[in-house]
């Protein structure tokens, strides 16, 4: 058992996550972001409406929230890059703050050293930290 939802007191579908209540929170935010592609937006939105926990959740990540973007490989139908996402993934809803809490991996010295690599696009700045747009 994953406990009870703080909002509706029903049994959570995952730890600190109740699908129905969280679906409503995501739905209320649909007009605040877009990938620019209606099919991609619909795919992401459906994942948000149906997620039983953070592990099933997709989010649109604006390009300006990525740092140390580095090319890794090119295949038959795609190109793969590696990057640091400043915000990191949603973990649960904070009812007190009325906002999403996110898991945050601390940056290490290697992340800042990698920023000096000439192959890196949008390098991490020395004063930049994870979750800078939402931190208190």
UniProtKB/TrEMBL annotation:
Top-level lineage group: Eukaryota
Protein name (record): Protein kinase domain-containing protein
Biological source species: Rhizophagus irregularis (strain DAOM 197198w) (Glomus intraradices)
């Amino acid at each position: 058992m994953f406990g009870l939802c703080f909002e509706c007191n029903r049994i959570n579908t995952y730890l600190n996550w109740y699908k129905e209540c969280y679906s409503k929170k995501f739905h209320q935010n649909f007009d605040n972001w877009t990938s620019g592609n209606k099919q991609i937006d619909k795919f992401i939105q459906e994942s948000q409406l149906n997620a039983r926990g953070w592990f099933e959740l997709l989010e649109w990540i604006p390009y300006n929230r990525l740092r140390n973007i580095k090319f890794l490989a090119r295949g038959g139908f795609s190109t793969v890059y590696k990057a640091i996402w400043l915000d990191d993934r949603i973990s649960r809803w904070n009812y007190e703050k009325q906002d999403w809490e996110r898991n945050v991996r601390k940056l290490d010295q290697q992340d800042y050293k990698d920023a000096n690599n000439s192959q890196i696009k949008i390098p991490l700045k020395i004063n930049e930290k994870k979750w800078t747009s939402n931190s208190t």
